[in-house]
Amino acid sequence: MTLRTLFRARHVLISIAALALAACAPAPIYQVAPGTVAALPAQVAVSPENYSKGNVIWGGSVIAVRNFPDHSEIEILAYPLDSSQRPLMNAQAAGRFIALFPGYVEPFNFPGGSLITISGQLNGNRSGAVDQAQYVYPLASVSQSHVWTPAEMRQGHPDIHFGVGVGVGIR
What are the φ and ψ backbone dihedral angles of 166, each rounded to 5 degrees? Predict the structure, then answer.
């Protein structure tokens, strides 16, 4: 075998490995429409007038569910999203927002701490408080939402561990 043949074989193997890894990652769940706001909730909270009525795809961890006579609100601690639109929980939190749902939502389906991604339209903001601190919450009228299961959060992430010694894993 010549050196050139080895380089070609290596190049082919690297290409196959890259395609295999890309195939493992799930596709985004929502289409990013033209004009979708790329700003995170914390950025929108600082200057909401710059983002009025824009479309958003945001996600994070459910903090609270509140039901009212004609709508429901879910307060969410936002995180940046990965390429599949899953919240990146090891990233720094990106502010809070309130997801507005028409009608009643069952709090049991949105337990505190569950991970969610929503698609919707900005619908103003509301002043409130986080503990004793004043806070401006961007409001997003939800057109679609998805609560992530633990299996979906693991999907596309290789379950490979390197180390020396003995280990026990229970799932």
Answer: -115, 140
Q: Give the CA distances from residue 4 to residues 1, 7, 10, 12, in Å, rounded to whole numbers and listed in that order.
A: 8, 5, 10, 12
Number of domains in the chain: 1
Q: Is 86 contained in some domain?
A: yes
Answer yes or no: is 53 within a domain.
Answer: yes
Is 96 in contact with 77 (CB distance < 8 Å)?
Answer: yes
Alpha-carbon distance of 129 to 132, in angstroms, equals 6
pLDDT digits (tens, 9 = 90+) for 67-119: 999 999 999 999 999 999 999 999 999 999 999 999 999 999 999 999 999 99
The answer to whether position 76 is within a domain reads yes
Q: pTM of the entire structure?
A: 0.77
Q: Establish if 33 belongs to a structural domain.
A: no
Domain of 78: which CATH number? 2.40.50.140
Q: What is the pLDDT of residue 10?
A: 56
Domain of residue 79, residue span: 41-154
Phi, psi values for residue 138, rounded to 5°: -65, 145
Pairing of strands 96-102, 115-130: unpaired
Of how many residues is the chain composed?
A: 171
Name the residue among 119, 101, 98, 110 with its Cα closest to residue 44.
Answer: 98
